[in-house]
Amino acid sequence: MRGVLGGVALVMALGLAPSAHAAGEAWAAVRLPSAQDELPQAMGSAAAGCLAGARPLPAGGEGYQVLRPQRNRFWAHPDTIAYVEGLGRRAALEGLGPLLVGDLSQPRGGPMPYGHGSHQHGLDVDIWFKLPGRPLNDAELAGPVPITMVKGTKVAATWGRGQMRLLQLAAADPGVDRIFVNPAIKAQACRSAGGDRGWLAKLRPWWGHDEHFHVRLACPAGSPGCVPQPAVPAGDGCGAELASWNAKPTLLPDSAKDKPNRRRPVLPAACERLLAEPELHAAGGR
Question: Which residues lie closer than 8 Å to 68 by C-beta, 6 or more apart?
Fold first, then answer.
């Protein structure tokens, strides 16, 4: 790890910008967060940020399980940890558990070497639409098989009341800023929501997101360096904006999933200092 960090430091000292892929590898090489006694700080934005004082989401809890723990992407701001645990409990009460929780963030956030361009400041979490109805074993958790909920521009036969209810529960938390879903799923939610439509505004159409939905929390109190996204537009989002997505390819091909990141995010200066901090081996990891 020291060699990776040293190489990044040398490139910065020479005034050269490291490639996004190299930067992602440096952040992924840090296996533990910064000091646990410091105030947790989400810094920068979801696509150009980092996380100080991260906490790990336990591998399993009431109503949820963490997928692919070998990725070491189960770290987040404490608000995100509390959100997932609360959603798991609510899902369990309604017979939807266990929820399958995908990536959160790396131990100090930052760019990832492959996959997400966001998930950098500890306020993002992916939750799968697949509802297995039973706990998965270790092998299934390490290599889960996703199920698409979309066929063309419509939801597939795999979509049902359980998935719809899960989205409602996920959006109900006041700390949720937005939830990214496939446009076909947003359209189905618009059609079936009935009179309770206030939560639909949080559902934002975006490419992919047919196998999982992506929750992003609002910047938390105590993180003045956190950069929020613009507020979602007024209304339920079921009109012209959603209709415009029908002309776009909204499913990602398999070749585009988990591909190496080539983005070059400009991170806050505080993130460079955070990356250089020594690992705290007393931190609670798995």
Answer: 102, 103, 141, 142, 143, 144
